[in-house]
Amino acid sequence: TDKANQEEGNNVPLIDNTLIVDISDALSEKDKVKFTVHTRTTMKNFQKSEFLVVRQHEEFIWLHDRYEEDPKYAGYIIPPPPPRPNFDASREKLQRLGEGEGTMTKEEFTKMKQELEAEYLATFKKTVAMHEVFLTRLASHSVFREDSHLHVFLEYDQDLCARPKGKLQQLGGLVKSLGNTTDQYYLNATVRDVNDFFEQQMNSLTEYHNQLKEATSRTDKMTEKHKELADSFIKISGGILQLANNDPGPLDKFLAKVSDTFERARKIESRVASDQDLKLADTLRYYMRDSQAARALLVRRLKCLVNYENANRTLEKARHKNKDIHAAEAAQSQACEQFEAISAQAKEELLDFKTRRLHAFRKSLIELAELEIKHARTQQDLLKKSVQNLRELL
Amino acid sequence: MADPVEPPPLFENVDILGDCANDEDLFVSARQEPPESYCADFHDGIDGDADLSNLSLEEDRKTEMENVPINNGGGLPDTMEHVKRQVARSPEIMLLILQVEAAGGEQFLEISITEPQKVGEGMSAYMAYRVKTKTNMPIFKKREFSVTRRFSDFLGLHDKLSEKYLKVGRIIPPAPEKSVIGMTKIKISSQSEGTPTNGNDFVERRRASLERYLKRTAQHPVLVLDPDFREFLESDVELPKATSTSALSSAGVMRLFNKVGETVNKITYKMDETDPWFEDRLTHIEALETQLRKLHANVEAMVSYRKELSHLTNGVSRSAAMLSACEDHNSLSMALSHLADTEEKVEALHLEQANTDFFILCEILKDYLGLLGSVRDAFHERTKLFQHWQHSQQMLAKKREAKAKMELTNRADKVDQAGAEVIEWEAKVERGQENFDKISKMIKMEVERFEKCRVHDFKMMFIRYLENHLNHQAQLVKYWEAFLPQAKAIA
């Protein structure tokens, strides 16, 4: 199976039975997907050692938000939440196909339908993979996996949050994220980082994230067009077959062979497009989100810095007025601790991020190249044989 | 060089230009021999069947070409395929035909069009093309020669050939289409030397289609011998400007009117068909046209997808380069840079693939749509001759009636005249039938030749297409194999 980016947490050994989570099943209903989350664990805080729950996308977001708002984890890169399952594009295409049924032959229609169903299935598998990766990162992280919210998520067999309040909650989420961006801007603009390293990291991460976003969008467009190209072979193969059927004589065998060649080439070309999507686009996409999570960490650190600087100023004022010095001193030393802790943590996380990134890109790029070579060779063989056969029919 | 095929008996089933089913270059080798020895060799070489003495060079019998009521086109005699005993009008032409036939599979005629050049500036500018010919056919003055021609010259050639040969039922390859938009872009573009880069696509497209047009015309065993065709290829002077080919000229307008009239005729006149062969053929051709049209449209779509894919791949390449630039880890940065390079190569490859799709598949399909139109034109000429013949029959009946009337009313003076008219129309009816029979035979022969060529062309088209794509895939393997070690080098 293609699990996009199996990421590891903080130096946890590969074979660790403490907490193993996977999505064993998924059901796609009208406008939602139900994921069956399957857990095996040796941890004592669970009632059983193996159990299942059914979760929907919103509950994954709920879980992510719990981690993000917990100051305990401020110094960590929180695994980015999975994107919302989106079958709109697939559904639209299927609908358009249905509308255009009259304009094509039965074979063409069947083939197009098969292609679209395969696409739908691929989208489905991807969303399952994204949700699973989110959970496995948490479950394999030595700190994250201790979290009580995670345990509730994995074990509690009732719905976690009320069904999404719909527009209102979405709006709330939108406002929150807007708030984040203005925050960042504000912070970036007014806080001079005491440590050059972090300032440079912030800048390069921002740049990196933006480039990844652009790269993801362009790769998506390219793979979509590639798929469109492959699908266009259906009509051509069909047309050539029609020619063969209506042109009895020296051409019919020949054309039938050509039609068959086109059909086989189409399948290979389709695979090329989908592999590019899986290996390149998905990797870029994931690291786009991960780099965003890394930035979020740096923003939290900057907030700590602001706190720290404010505490310093308060202490100065207190000393000046000779009032509440003790409280101010306590506050300042706490802010200092927090800041230094998060800075140290952040440094490690960034290093970890880099390692993860290297590992993931290496794996994906190697697999991408190997698949491209494999498919191109397969096409080569197909075409070579076809030409040989066709020359015999000359 | 021995003829690959056993030399056929004289004048029977001889395809002057060799079997279309041979390889693309029509002929195998060049050999120039003086005419006399040809004659002698030919005479000895034939397997006894043919005997020059069987021919009576002085025979006065008219060829199929004569007595075509609508403007005798003259021209050279027919291919020898179905002309068993019919003979050329003069000994010289006879000799010429013998020479051409004798060489059989050894003659070749290679035409290529190169060096499109923009001549002049502004709205009176035009593209000039160099037409190069290599041949060993004795009817040409030299073995290698080239001339400069412009687009309207090609149209003029086509018009001349049509005028001469369409009426007897030959299938004349259609000339490439005019393109007002394409040409206007060239005219107003500022470059005056060499190939304008803006209109590159258009110019290359046109050059290729002009080349195919000449090659196809040369494939035709009779058209290739036509003096106008020869003049087009070898006459080193500027051809008289074919003004009647301009879309806006009065001749152009007249042509439009005639076309409309003909189209109406085509639709309204229902011929009394006695030979089911023609009906069947026409149905088959119309079905073929419909399918080709659809196929052509779908291939066009594929071409545009590939071009768009190429463009989008460029976007990915540039993104990879940007990522490489802001990636601080060395080996990953290198790998991303190589990815950018690879995607750039893939982008260029997609464009090449689009060209393969276009020039090898799309354009040939389009050519055949035009050719099928030419076939239908020939069929239509036959319908016109039938109409003409029927009309003559009707007139004859009238004249006979008139004569009978005169006899009844005992008008001696009018009877003679009526009698003369009857005879006149009897002759016309006879000629009408003759011509109708001739064109029917001719069309059958032409269609047979056409079908053979079509089958061969289609086969070669697809083979070349797939071979090209085979090479493209080989390239793809190379590019990604070059990238793989870079990806592995990430540490």
Automatic annotation (TrEMBL), chain A:
UniProt-listed CDD domains: BAR_SNX5_6, PX_SNX5_like
Source taxonomy: Eukaryota, Metazoa, Ecdysozoa, Arthropoda, Hexapoda
One Gene Ontology CC term in the entry: endosome
Superkingdom field: Eukaryota
A GO MF term: phosphatidylinositol binding
Pfam families documented for this protein: PX, Vps5
GO process annotations (BP): phagosome-lysosome fusion involved in apoptotic cell clearance; protein transport
Protein name listed in UniProt: Sorting nexin-6
Organism for this UniProt entry: Asbolus verrucosus (Desert ironclad beetle)
TrEMBL record, chain B:
Localization terms from the record: Cell projection; Early endosome membrane
Superkingdom of source: Eukaryota
GO CC annotations, alphabetized: cell projection; cytosol; early endosome membrane
Coiled-coil stretches noted in the UniProt entry, renumbered to this chain: none
UniProt topology in membrane: Peripheral membrane protein
Pfam families: PX, Vps5
CDD domains per record: BAR_SNX1_2, PX_SNX1_2_like
GO BP of this protein: early endosome to Golgi transport; protein transport
Domain PX intervals: 107-240
Family listed: Belongs to the sorting nexin family.
Full protein name: Sorting nexin-2
The species this protein was found in: Asbolus verrucosus (Desert ironclad beetle)
